[in-house]
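Notes on consecutive records. When two proteins share a document, each keeps its own sequence and its own token line. Never mix them. Below: protein one.
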Amino acid sequence: MNAANLVYGIHAVRAVLSKHPKRVTLVYLQSERGDQRVEELLKLAQENGIKVERRSVKDLDQRSGGERHQGAIAELSGGNALGEGALDDVLDAAGPAPLVLVLDGVQDPHNLGACLRTADAVGVAAVIVPRDRAAGLSATVRKVASGAAETVPPIQVVNLSRTLKWLKERGLWIVGTDDAAGEPLHKANLTGPLVVVLGAEGAGMRRLTREHCDLSVAIPMAGVVESLNVSVAAGVVLYEAVRQRTKG
């Protein structure tokens, strides 16, 4: 079994059963649990004709690699992320002013999962990540995302610079985050078709990525901390964009 094709945790399993049941090949539920939340998953699986196996907590612990599974694991078919070929259709369906998040080399799966969760909350149309030297859509990412990985799955691209150029040609305004040289976040115009770019933990955006940005913004910092965790920064920037888009 490929761990990348596993979803574990009550919220994540419920999300994939509700939104993408055709991708689920098998559901494992903890044999010692019979509470309402687990029974809800059993009912969802049965309604969609998905096989359910009851397993011991020890068995589920082994399948999840020691991560918290809350008594529920779903096995998926197919790959662990969308390819860049899906990006055109995603943007077409997003309306005239899509909001896109680009993560340039985020390697911590917990950060990627948290970014996906925020992206889902604010209505991001797509989350774009490079295929190499970055976290993929693993079981840990799905667990942290609490179902958001099934609604806003990362789109993996081979060449991020080429993708940013293509997004710009489609009329999207590309805004990168740069604490050292950016315009204050609240003064930037984040309305309209928008791409928000955040760099890797510590290193920030790569040079080629930065060169494709139309504007760089900085999150004002009043304390001694020089920068925010990338998932926290994503939340701050994305919610400022939403505030501007819904103002009035």
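Protein two starts on the next line and is unrelated to protein one.
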Amino acid sequence: MSQFAQFDSSQTRPTKLGREFDFTIRSAEAADVETLAGIAAEREGQPVAIWHASFEKYFDRSLDRATHQLLVAVRAGITLGYAKSQYFAPVTGAPENVAPAGWYLTGVIVRPEHRRLGIGLGLTTARLDRIARTHTESFYFCNAKNAVSIALHERLGFAEHTRDFWFPKVHFEGGSGILFRKAMKVQTT
């Protein structure tokens, strides 16, 4: 089964409900770690234990918000999805085609039963708003086959930057990767 959501180019806005779907986006809390690990495990078809330590570590890094963000979308006490972003700085000795330094949107996962309700868009916009407080650009990369992600990010102003890049520990199964860039104005609020 594909990890990518089925793409329908006619779906440019939430389609499952005829009215606004209300949810809240907030920074993750320690109590969210188990639920987030469960969402990731379900998506990957793996035991929750494999993901629990990973989310604990990411949550700990997100506490100061200087290099990591971990956001959750919730409605009536139910976690609908999550999104991560991190600041990346190339290390000495990295390949010449290393991705540029900056903030990267590194994943948004929405539970299958809550897709097409604007949650992915909301989580992505919230991350960009936080990044724009201090930076004038952001990046994201994905598999060239992930049409849903590409359409979502293009809608938000991301444009293809390159297909020739290296990012640590990132591999694109069954396809090539694309690095996208978005120019932003620093928000002074």
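For the record: The radius of gyration is 16 Å.
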